[in-house]
Write a structure and sequence with these properties.
The protein is of the alpha+beta class. It contains five helices and seven strands. It has a seven-stranded mixed sheet with strand order 1-2-3-4-5-7-6, with helices on both faces. This is GNAT family N-acetyltransferase.
Amino acid sequence: MITTVEPVTTRPATGADVGFLLALLVSSLPPATAALGAVPGLLEQQHAAREASYAAAYASLRDEIVLVGDEPVGRLLTADVPFATHVVDIAIAPGRRGRGWGTHLLERLLAHGPVSLTVATDSPAGALYERLGFCVVGRTDTHLSLHHSGHHTTEGTGA
């Protein structure tokens, strides 16, 4: 079982986080694509286009920076969609992965109800989603659409 070494918290993302978010974006790209970051302004344009795409697709975005103490270690971007919270983006910096923080963030969302997300078919994160009980509800050649009904508790209901 993975244990969290240090507690993880979140705070709303601000304009001051753009540098961190760009570095996180580069860390998630395939090496050949990341190398394009040497072209001045290209990654900034890609980041801006991606953010605009998210904003156009989801009316209720919550953009949070994942913190250990005061240090940013990741991002959690969610949106309310009919009948679920949709994870638009979840990313932990490569050198900080494997400490249970992604699991903690997803469990926190699942405690409040159903969660949906999309993951690349070749993403190592697929194993995490499977372990947490997400079910495949759709697929393309490159991505899986996943859903989890959330953790229902009987606490306080007398059941």
